[in-house]
Amino acid sequence: MGSKTGxxxxxxxxxxxxxxxxxxxxIDHRMQLARDCGFxxxxxxxxxxxxxxxEIKQAAGKAGLRIHSVMNMDHWKYPLSSSDPSVVERSLKxxxxxxxxxxxxxxxxxxxxxxxxxxSNSYADxxxxxxxxxxxxxxxxxxxxxxxxxxxxxxKFLLSPLEYxxxxxxxxxxxxRAYFDVGNVVLYGYPQDWIRTLGKRIVKLHIKxxxxxxxxxxxGRVAKWVPLLEGDIDWRAVHDALQEIGYVGTAxxxxxxxxxxxxxxxxxxxxxILSGDVG
Length: 279
Hints:
Elements: E1 12-17, H1 27-36, E2 41-45, H2 50-63, E3 66-71, H3 85-105, E4 109-112, H4 123-144, E5 147-151, H5 161-169, E6 176-181, H6 191-198, E7 202-207, E8 209-211, E9 214-215, E10 220-221, E11 224-226, H7 235-244, E12 249-253, H8 260-275
Helix pairs in contact: 1-2, 3-4, 5-6, 6-7
């Protein structure tokens, strides 16, 4: 295969986003479908409803599917970096519910987007405000023993792996690390480079693919999300980088949802990525 790793399988658990499972099914059937399609774990969105949280926990347990992480939901609409204290408080409330969900479900991480840079909120202000907000969450994270995973997204913030490292290290705590999304950085970097720079700071991974290919109908190059192994990410290089840093944990696929045959194919491609069999 030509890979320096020889195609060794990475010790990474395969997880699926709960929102990828058909919404037409009950929670019980959605969890069972994930298990039947070969996934080992699941990442669930925040819910403020205790009855729904209990239903999700019971369904995952019944299917033998571990809830490994919680996707915080309020950080885009109500950024932690907002200049409006009421917006920040709304975001903090959602993040606290996420940490409570994680504790209840037995998850060990919560994904949080730290801030959003836009025309009304400067980079420097977002940097300062987001740190102040996250500082307020860390005592609860430590109490519940749940790691806050800071994700890099298209929020015009933390645009280099060196800054990502500096931001995380600046908190001086084991309860805040990086939730690294392989697909999100390809517009301005190489995932394998970010992985090596972040190293042990990575607590969880998101897996998706991206393409910059020529589109004759569009009359030029088009950037778009595509199915796994159909984009321009060098998955062999990503595999090697993850092996080099000794990453042992969970990776969640974050793709459009679909039915059983679709999810089985997603899992098959996921397995190829983790085995290095991508040549």
